[in-house]
Design a protein that fits this description.
Helix content: under 10%
Distance between the termini: 40 Å
Order of helices and strands: EEEEEEEEEEE
Shape: globular
Number of strands: 11
């Protein structure tokens, strides 16, 4: 079992930045690829970014490329994945959730249904 707790959401003006964190506890954090997804009101959940077990592979949605950066810290007492979000736009407003995907190999996936554990989410609101 893996427990995921997100933090760092809030209200920011367009053009501003936020850094989301997702703290993981439970089984070995470094065995999991990690992803960030978001869901806006009335819309489907969508992939934002993912990072492999080692951090060596990363994948981004087109909407996130050049503005968002995913990273992770596999140190035993940290076990956290981050999403640095810059140049935020009103259309980035959503609930952002992190997810963990158990992986044998150092790969990533954008498919939500392949992730095993999910956090509760943190609200990000970008005002115009």
């Amino acid at each position: 079992q893996v427990q995921l707790v997100e933090s760092g959401g809030g209200l920011v003006q367009a053009g501003g930045s936020l850094r989301l964190s997702c703290a993981a506890s439970g089984r070995t954090f470094s065995s999991y690829a990690m992803g960030w997804f978001r869901q806006a009101p009335g819309k489907e959940r969508e992939f934002v970014a993912a990072i492999s077990r080692s951090g060596g592979r990363r994948s981004y949605a087109d909407s996130a490329k050049g503005r968002f950066t995913i990273s992770r810290d596999n140190a035993k007492n940290t076990n956290t994945v981050y999403l640095q979000m810059n140049s935020l736009k009103p259309e980035d407003t959503a609930v952002y959730s992190c997810a963990a995907d158990y992986r044998t190999f150092d790969l990533v996936t954008m498919a939500a249904n392949e992730y095993d554990y999910w956090g509760q989410g943190t609200q990000v609101t970008v005002s115009s």
